[in-house]
Amino acid sequence: MTAVLEQTAGVAASSRRGAILSVRDLKTYFATPAGEVKAVDGLSFDLRAGQVLGLVGESGSGKSVTGFSIVRLIEPPGRIVGGEISFKGQELTGASLEEMRRLRGRHIAMIFQDPMMTLNPVLRIDTQMIEAIQAHERVPIAEARARARDALGKVGIPSPEERLKAYPHQFSGGMRQRVAIATALLNQPDLIIADEPTTALDVTIQAQILAEVQKLTRDTNTAVIWISHDLSVVSGMADEVAVMYAGRIVEAGPVAEVINAPRHPYTAGLIGSLPSRNRRGERLRQIHGMTPNLLDLPEGCAFRTRCDHADEACRREPGLFARHGHVHRCFHPCREDA
């Protein structure tokens, strides 16, 4: 497979060739009084320019922590304890704060789930967007303002010229999120990490945003990591998908193949719980149980306590199984004809 490569002994250096982002064996832990929480535990993948990677899973699976780790925004008690993050050949885990500041916004943009993590409540929208441009480019204010206005229009904000003069509190939650998305697109970054950015938007605007992101990847060859719990959104825009559970990727591959022929029971459970996969009048299927406590994970496969197919073999840590670029971690994979 091209975008997602789990760490194995046989991974060659050539697998990174052409990758704009290469993550190897990333481990991000949080120290707590009760013990160490392994939020991300041995994550590896490659992403090429122009590709969209969907990162999916239930809340607490480590998706957002992965995104924050890449842009080095993990705060204490969290810390990256191991692994490598290489962006366009530059190692980020050891990069200085000044080096990361130069990269963020210009080359790597992150769209947060909460727009108020992006917007300053006491500054006008035009001030914030113009500053986001001029922090990385020496352009006249008039030109920066025009780019800001056009960006607001692209994300569906009416009367963008007038809206530039408004403050964040004068927008609804959904409108603030659109402003945050527009700000991330301003400098046409090489990589966008989108952390569930359309959750608060209605379906019409959501479709508009997704179309704009897809157009951006086509026109500017921007790579995108789209973090979401919504498989229907990911299936419509991503090239490849990686399914996370308890801090690890349990299945990954081309999005059509993973959606139509899931190999890991957890992936199959996520897909089976979608309303579109159930017949009218039938109860929605669900994965029984709760996500495990990361302080007390089951031995072996972390999913075994919720899996209908678990047996004694699952008390061992499953290795990586690969077939035609479709990888999974399970001793009892779903049949392809299921």
What does this protein structure show overall?
This protein has 338 residues and is an alpha/beta fold. The chain has 2 domains: 7-107 and 189-328, P-loop containing nucleotide triphosphate hydrolases (Rossmann fold, 3-Layer(aba) Sandwich), CATH 3.40.50.300; 116-188, no CATH class. It is 28% helix and 23% strand. The protein has 10 helices and 12 strands. It has an 8-stranded mixed β-sheet, with helices on both faces. It is globular, with a radius of gyration of 21 Å. Mean pLDDT is 88; it is low at 5-15.
**What share of residues is helical?**
25-40%
Multimeric organization: single chain
- Secondary-structure content class: alpha/beta
Question: What do we call the CATH topology of the largest domain?
Answer: Rossmann fold
Draw up the topology in text.
Elements: E1 19-32, E2 35-48, E3 52-56, H1 63-70, E4 78-87, E5 90-91, H2 97-103, E6 108-111, H3 125-134, H4 141-154, H5 160-163, H6 173-185, E7 191-195, H7 203-220, E8 223-228, H8 231-237, E9 240-245, E10 248-254, H9 255-260, H10 265-272, E11 321-323, E12 326-328
Parallel strand pairs: 3-8, 3-9, 6-7, 7-8
Antiparallel strand pairs: 1-2, 1-4, 4-5, 9-10, 10-12, 11-12
Helix pairs in contact: 3-4, 4-6
